[in-house]
Amino acid sequence: MNEVNQYILDTIKSHVWGGFDTPDDIQEVISDLLEEGADEKMLRESVSTEFMKKLEAEKSWPKVTDIDRLESVFLTLKTNGILCLHNAGYTMSDGHEDSDEALSSYPKDKFFGYCFYHGQDLERAVSGEGLMLAYDHVNGDVPEKINVAQTIQKALKKAGFDVEWDGTTNQRLSIPKFDWKHRANSR
Fold first, then answer.
1. Largest CB tally within 10 Å, which of 55, 95, 132, 166?
2. What is the DSSP letter of 80?
3. Tens digits of residue pLDDT in 30-58
4. How far is residue 166's CA from residue 109's CA, in Å, rounded to a whole number?
5. What's the pLDDT score for residue 185?
6. In this protein, which residues make up the domain named DUF6891 (predicted)?
7. How is residue 68 annotated by DSSP?
8. pLDDT of res. 184
9. How many helices (H) and strands (E) are present in the chain, helices listed first?
10. β-strand partners of 174
């Protein structure tokens, strides 16, 4: 298998197992990635094959997965003033932009902070490398940002997650043992 096909296959697997995309969404991703040397027919057919593998695997997953527990934490944080987003853009800057956009649809004083993970974080989580969470204060500086992170850390620990963080704004929160199992029909 050549590098182009392998890269696109890896991308397909990441999108399927990430649990946010439909088969049509992934076909669009393939269209964006196709280049000379790509086996378009094989790549397009692999989408349904990969979805079937995932649906079969889901049968053996626990009733409550880590992503289910994270969703519960995100909902709790939202009721306590921190807006949390799943799969916010592809990069850190995308995540901050998506957060700003999401915040703009609420009254200004509803949230004091926000939290997200982006597409690259999702790819790492799907491949078993844990999950990183970004955070920020809506309009504060370092002490307020640390308060946001501490609030998120406390909620994650209460939900049973091991969280790594150095206590500074220089580092994102990390859940190193996050087992990414996101059911296709759960979102």
1. 95
2. T
3. 999 999 999 999 999 999 999 999 999 99
4. 29
5. 58
6. 3-183
7. H
8. 72
9. 7, 4
10. 132, 164
Residue ranges of the domains in the chain? 3-58, 66-175
Cα 103 from Cα 14, distance rounded (Å): 28
Sorting pLDDT into bands at 50, 70 and 90, what band is 71? Answer: very high
d(CA 133, CA 54): 25
Taking the C-alpha atoms of residue 86 and residue 97, their distance in angstroms, rounded to an integer, is 13
CB-based contact 72:159 (threshold 8 Å): yes
85 in Cβ contact with 101 (< 8 Å): no
Calpha distance 9→30 (Å, rounded):
9
What residues pair up with 113 in beta bridges, in sequence order?
A: 82, 137
pLDDT digits (tens, 9 = 90+) for 117-175: 999 999 999 999 999 999 999 998 999 999 999 999 999 999 999 999 999 999 999 99
Task: Give me the half-sphere count of Cα atoms (radius 13 Å) on the Cβ side of residue 181.
Answer: 17
| HEC-encoded secondary structure of 84-140 | EECCCCCCHHHHHHHHHHHHCCCCCCCCCEEEECCHHHHHHHHCCCCEEEEEEECCC
